[in-house]
Amino acid sequence: MTQSRPNEFIAPPECPVFEPTWEEFADPFAYINKIRPIAEKTGICKVRPPKEWQPPFACDVDRLHFTPRIQRLNELEAQTRVKLNFLDQIAKFWELQGCTLKIPHVERKNLDLYQLNKLVNDDGGFDAVCRERRWSKIALKMGFAPGKAIGSHLRSHYERILYPYNLFQTGANLLPTLTNDTKDMDYIPHDLPQRQSVQPLETCSIARRAKRMRAEVNLFQEASLSCVAVCLSPQVDQYMCLVCGSGSEEDRLLLCDGCDDSYHTFCLIPPLHDVPKGDWRCPKCLAQECGKPQVAFGFEQAGRDYSLRTFGDMADSFKSDYFNMPVHMVPTELVEKEFWRLVSTIEEDVTVEYGADIASKEFGSGFPVRGGRFQVSPEDEDYLTSGWNLNNMPVIDSSVLTHVTADICGMKLPWLYVGMCFSSFCWHIEDHWSYSINYLHWGEPKTWYGAPGYTAEKLEGVMKKLAPELFESQPDLLHQLVTIMNPNTLMNHGVPIYRTNQCAGEFVITFPRAYHSGFNQGFNFAEAVNFCTMDWMPMGRMCVDHYRQLDRYCVFSHDEMVCKMASKADTMDVALASAVQRDMTVMLLEEDKLRDKVSKMQSQQVEYDLLPDEERQCSKCRTTCYLSALTCPCNPGQLVCLHHAQDLCSCPPNNLTLNTVCLFMCSGLEVLRSLVEEAEVKQFPQSDLLRQLCAVTLDAEKCAVVDLLTRVDDFQQRSERLLCDEAPSPADLQSLLDVSLGLDVELPQLSLLRERLEQARWLEVVQGANSQPHSLCLDTMRRLIDQGVGLAPHALVERAMARLQELLTMSEHWEERALGLMEARPCYCVETLEAALQEVNSIPAYLPNCLLLKDTVDQAKDWLQEADTLQLGGRIPVLDTLTDLVSRAKTIPVWLDPLARLEALVSDVQAWKESAAKTFLMKNSPYSLLEVLCPRCEAGTGSQKSKSKRAKDVAQCNKRNGTWLDCLSDMATLAEVRQKEMESLLALRASNESKLLQAGDCGALRVCVCHNAPLGAMLQCELCSDTFHRSCVSGSNQDPRPNQAWLCPHCQRSEKPPLDRVLPLLASLQRIRVRLPEGDALRFLIERTVRWQHRMQQASTEGVALMTSHQRWGSSSPTSAPSPHTYSVSFYMDHQCIPLQGPPELEELMVEGFLLQVTLPETQQLYMSLSRLDSHNLTDSPSPQHSTEQDQHQHNPQGGSPPHNQVTY
Fold first, then answer.
1. Peptide bond preceding 826: is omega within 30 degrees of 0, i.e. cis?
2. Checking phi first, is residue 166 left (phi over 0); if not, alpha (psi -120 to 50) or beta?
3. Cis peptide before 6 (omega within 30 of 0)
4. Can you give the residue ranges of the JmjN domain (predicted)?
């Protein structure tokens, strides 16, 4: 840490500290009024609450996020900022000349160029100081020791650095170069305008860099190139020196990097001997750049968002690192001295951040409030209503701010402040010179400085005197809260300053117009708000006048607040009401004086309290107007207060309008009469007041009579004009009748006016109904006619009644006719209905039947178009589309020519489907015709389910079948389904054939439709190889027949008609020319049958089938048939399928033959051949038939042997 200077900061005296008792602490405003005579002498005071008063911290810490302000300490202090601004100007001046400013070292410290420049200028300037040889005196004034020839060094540095700048400021064309010593320190400009929250004006960017004295440069290169020079070609004559006007000696011709003007190096004053490094500016550009106005100073926002925890970590880390000790061990006196040292130096740049003006409305106050997120314990509920709760103090009954309706953040709603070490709040007074109160919830102390309110103007004068440059660019600088000044400096100029350290749990109160500032000792959390007591009201009115002089806007309208308080005077205590009365008297006297100056202008009453503040601000001084304002038609968007009547526009005064607010209602004549009667009844003694009351009452009666006669005459004239009008508006008639209510006389025009009002209202309703024909129905027309019948006769009413009656008659006629056209049988054609609609379209009314007729015609047209499109280009219609068209046509009450032909087609299709169903379907078949004709997607699964489960799956199967059958729209899909059918059925056959071999106990097997164990006579399906109880399938057409293949109920899905009965069905379907799924399935069935016959013929020709079968039976393994001794329960096969053990081609050929839903002779031939070969193999093979037959005799009660082709297990 840098050591302190010998001239250390001297702490000002302490402000008073008050410690109220519980009784005094109960009423905050009463206590503040009690301590005010003492505390207002110091401007600020500190209040320590009773020790037991410890409100809970209610702020939502998790939700509190804020972006702090960045504060560079040496930019805050007014005199230091003036120095920095001066050095930045000097640095910019030399930078534009291609030179870099370096701060000289004198006596081992940086030279204060600002002080040197100021002292030389105060002594008459450079020439005067040199002439009178006062440089040694200048050195003494700057604090250098005498006798060391410091004056000559100061002269050298001034002449080298400051003198060219001062000459330039006077307008001389001096453009020198700057030579620096190697010991000088580089000066880095602060660039204050570029870092402010108030953005600087746009400046010309210096992007080009000229390199002069080059011999060859192309004059045609673009202006955006970084190098600009003058070449030696003949074209250089276009560059002329602006001083001598000559283009000669082009090697000495310089080009300005700002405007491209040319100058000879020897024409400049003084001449340049060396080429400046960097960019170079001509005198004109230099004056333009350096003459730009200074930008308003403001704080820059930080680049990151903080939570309370992250900001605290940063703040504690900064303080401990800076002082190299724990934060709680740093003495407050050391922090205070170091703070004022840092703000007064330009050598050290220390930056801190301050979370100021955080809205408590968004994140919650540190004090508990009703309805907030913080849950208050029962013992802490008193803090909700405490007057010292900063949420309550501005709005308690005795507070003036209660009557300001707007919720002003920071004034009526508290603001939160999160500080760190050195973060500061600058010298300022509160808005409207109100009181302020600050409570430190927790954290390290906050150091305060304050000045009494009566010294405010003196403090402002001292700061303007010591830093006039800042106030030239910002006259309201002290209202921006961005400038501080050392309290010692202010005290040295006669301004009394007082200080205090506010610790956690303490209040600091500032009084009206008391300037205050301070800084934070470390990480802390504070909350502040404004309040106004009745003693503040005169000060508040003075503040509005002060704001008017500064052209500063008001936070609220003081006049409006006073008027609202006066309207509620009966609810106030006497002291507050008396203060309001005194302030209102001052307000009215001032308003009367101002209105006397503009009395000749026309006036109108307005209600400014209903407008937002920004719409009633004076365009000159920005004060908020309430009692009155001036406007002009030439500029309707602007107004001015009466203080600036001459600043509104250049129009003559009689063009302006005085807008005023009506504050009070005058007493009526009846009130005056009642007062006079009361005085007579009670026999009040004669007095000036009573005589004045009687005189005023008499004058009021005379004025009332004259006024009444005037208003009656005006009423009669207006009545005559309206009654002569053929069609007066209802609004004018009603307005005139309303006027008659205030006239206490009989008027003959009233009855006629009422009649005309009823007629006008009826005509207005009729006109409105006619303008909206889509809502003018028959009932509305009948109701309007009934109402018109009761009106007094009038030409307009008669004409309107006639039009309504004609429209009603026509509408009723067409409603009946439209209904008849739709209900007629036989129906009318489309052309007839369209012709009727042509006449209906001209009727301006809402006719439901006619609209229904129009919809019917539109439906018929759409249907006819779809019917024509259906067979366009020889397309074959789909049955579903055809059926949908026919069903829709039956709901349209219109004659449709194609309907009969389409119905005939649908009838033919139904007849064909019935014929096909009789051909294929068995009696009581559970399958539809389409299911029979199409291949099965899930072949053979039904046999594995119980009866109950199959019953439950019927609905699901129907849905599933409907889904996949809808997909069978082409032969490719059917072929895929056929392939799946073959694969699943072959897998099922293999599973069923091995089922009996794999089971260890017959009792565990589940076969047949009954899903029970095999027992007794069993039948085996030739297609799926599953076994069934003979008793379960007997008594139906499922009985086995000799020399024929037996199919189970699941595989026997249709009658399987012969092919010659099926082919005519396909031929008849082709004649119908309608496409339906059953037809596609039948076509696929026939094609599949033909392909199978071809395969069968090929196999017979090659002799493969019989030879392969014979070989396989001859070499069949013992596992080809079930073993006779593997089951404990005996049963035998009454009909066994042919076991196939050979190549899959033969098995697939036979399986597909049985799958075909037609009967073919080739199928029977194949079956018989395979049966004979199977019998031959059984005879030749050594088999335990003998023992098997003995076992069968034991189990057969008749003792007979099983029939042929039966196997006993």
1. yes
2. alpha
3. no
4. 15-56
Distance in angstroms (rounded) separating the CA atoms of residues 897 and 1149 = 53
Residues 6+ apart with CB under 8 A from 958: none
Which pLDDT tens digit goes with each residue over 1032-1061?
A: 887 655 677 777 788 888 888 888 899 888
- 366 and 438 share one domain: yes
Look at residue 366 and tell me if it is in a domain: yes
Tell me which residue of 591, 455, 597, 579 sits closest to 513, measured CA to CA: 455
Dist CA 42 CA 497 (whole Å) = 7
Q: How far is residue 649 from each of residues 291, 517, 633, measured CA to CA in Å?
A: 32, 42, 10
Residue 732 — φ and ψ, nearest 5°? Answer: -65, -40
Q: Is 834 helix (H, G, I), strand (E, B) or coil?
A: helix
Give the torsion sign (CA, 198, 201, 206, 207): positive
H or E element in which residue 25 lies: helix 22-25
**Chain segment 991-1011, per-residue pLDDT in tens:** 887 876 665 566 777 888 888
d(CA 230, CA 1013): 117
With a threshold of 0.70, does the pTM exceed it? no
User: Total domain count for the chain?
Assistant: 5
Q: Do 513 and 570 belong to one domain?
A: no
Beta carbons of 514 and 451 less than 8 angstroms apart: yes
- Report the C-alpha gap between 979 and 172 in whole angstroms: 107
Residues sharing a CB contact under 8 Å with residue 257, sequence separation 6 or more, in sequence order: 206, 208, 209, 210, 228, 279, 280, 281
Q: Are residues 370 and 497 in the same domain?
A: yes
User: Taking each helix axis from N to C terminus, what angle separates 1077-1102 and 1059-1072, rounded to the nearest 10 degrees?
Assistant: 140
Q: Which of 623, 653, 682 is the last residue of a domain?
A: 682
> Do residues 903 and 884 make contact, with C-beta atoms less than 8 angstroms apart?
no
Which structure tokens are listed for 437? Answer: 């109160």
Between CA 502 and CA 505 the distance in angstroms is: 8
CA distances (Å), 350 to each of 51, 321, 341, in order? 38, 13, 11
My answer on whether 777 and 924 are in the same domain is no
At 727 the three-state DSSP class reads coil
Give one DSSP letter per residue of 159-207, joined into a string.
Answer: IIIIHHHHHHHHT--B-------TTSEEP----GGGGSSSPPPP-----
Q: Residue 1037 corresponds to which tokens in the numbers above? A: 């057409």
Query: Shortest CA distance to 491 belongs to which of 446, 447, 430, 450?
Result: 450
Are 788 and 926 contained in the same domain?
no
Full domain range(s) for residue 577: 561-682
Structure tokens at 1063: 């082919």
Q: Are residues 660 and 616 in contact, defined by beta-carbon separation less than 8 angstroms? A: no
* Position 1036 in a domain: yes
Q: Are strands 415-419 and 524-531 parallel, antiparallel or unpaired?
A: antiparallel
Answer whether residue 498 is part of any domain: yes
**What pLDDT is attached to residue 1181?**
52
Is there a domain that residue 117 lies in? yes
- Whether residue 795 is found in the same domain as residue 933: no
pLDDT tens by residue, 430-482:
999 999 999 999 999 999 999 999 999 999 899 888 877 777 766 666 666 66
